[in-house]
Amino acid sequence: MIADIHLQPDDAHPINQAFHQFLTTHAQQAAALYILGDCFEMWVGDDVGCKVYGKTLSLFKELTAKGLPIYMMFGNRDFLMRQRFWQITGISHIKEPGLVKIGDFSALICHGDGLCTDDIEFQKMRKILRHPIITWLFLRLPQKKRISIGEGMRAKSQKYNLNKAENIMDVNQQAVEALFDAHPGVTHLIHGHTHRAAHHTYELNSQTFHRWVLGDWRPEMQYLKIQNGEASLHSWSPFG
């Protein structure tokens, strides 16, 4: 499982190059690949994204055509993929929170931004941007206008995060517990968004709960491997 690649609109970018190498080497050893949001730095519609990220989409298609299942959920930067994207790549869309069962291992999966409830302004904007009417209207704007808006929002977000306290950009423990409460019997949660790869545990009612956080791709990729009923975090670099 991976998240937060933040592919740039330039195939020559080091992150894109590393991800393409990952798809043509390491990913092919997996039984399935899960991407938990923010695969792309920005997605302003299939008519734009499918051209800008054409090479990546072709590599996705090569993998799914060979029989490798790939599952993807929306992130806070790329939640506007529609039918054309799924058809071109052969990727299956997962809504969040999702519940996955891999052998004897079961876990809840989500991007993670919805758990950062201490960041009130972010949650307000998230609710507005994901409203069906807003997305419907946005996707009907001219391409240049959508690209301009997307780049402007990305710049504003980066500036906003520089002046934001670190703690409010992390997940809220009560939000995590509420998610587990809504899915009794599940004791593992996997998410991205915060870019803070780690394995957290806490005890409640004599039961241990696990929260696995996926890292980003700067400077090396962090991924979660599930094998023989157990999860473990690993690093991967195209430089070995």
UniProtKB/TrEMBL annotation:
It catalyses: UDP-2-N,3-O-bis[(3R)-3-hydroxytetradecanoyl]-alpha-D-glucosamine + H2O = 2-N,3-O-bis[(3R)-3-hydroxytetradecanoyl]-alpha-D-glucosaminyl 1-phosphate + UMP + 2 H(+). Its cofactor is Mn(2+). It is found in: Cell inner membrane. Its EC number is 3.6.1.54. GO terms for cellular component: cytoplasm; extrinsic component of plasma membrane. Substrate binds at residues 76-77, 119, 157, 161, 164, 193. Residues 2-196 form the Calcineurin-like phosphoesterase domain. Keywords: Cell inner membrane, Cell membrane, Hydrolase, Lipid A biosynthesis, Lipid biosynthesis, Lipid metabolism, Manganese, Membrane, Metal-binding. Binds 2 Mn(2+) ions per subunit in a binuclear metal center. Belongs to the LpxH family. This is UDP-2,3-diacylglucosamine hydrolase. It comes from Thiosulfativibrio zosterae. The lineage of its organism: Bacteria, Pseudomonadati, Pseudomonadota, Gammaproteobacteria, Thiotrichales.
